[in-house]
Amino acid sequence: MAEAMELSSELLAIVACPACHAKFAVDYDANELVCTNQSCGLAYPVRGNIPVLLVDQARSTL
């Protein structure tokens, strides 16, 4: 079973989507940070509780 993702509220308050600079929603089931800008639609993986905020590693949700 995968380890539960843990991200601090302080981190979530300061990180933004690298593509459009919008805030993130947390998808704990998929271990992803999902951009809240509906026209952007990128989801970034979180590996070992570290967000991988690289556009080329993101998944499109559109």
Q: Care to describe what's here?
A:
By secondary structure, this protein is mainly beta. It has a single domain, classed as N-terminal domain of TfIIb, CATH 2.20.25. The protein has 1 helix and 5 strands; from the N terminus they run αβββββ. Strands 1, 2, 3, 4 and 5 form a 5-stranded antiparallel β-sheet that branches. A hairpin with a 6-residue loop joins strand 2 and strand 3. The protein is globular and about 30 Å long. It starts with 8 loop residues before the first helix and ends with a strand. The relative contact order is 0.23.
What is the domain tally? 1
| Number of separate strands | 5
The share of residues in extended strands comes to 25-35%
Q: Which residues sit in consecutive blocks of at least 5 with pLDDT less than 50?
A: none
CATH architecture: Single Sheet
Write the layout of secondary structure elements.
Elements: H1 9-14, E1 24-27, E2 32-35, E3 42-47, E4 50-51, E5 59-60
Antiparallel strand pairs: 1-2, 2-3, 3-4, 3-5
Can you summarize this structure?
The protein has 1 helix and 5 strands, in the order H-E-E-E-E-E. The protein is mainly beta and 62 residues long.
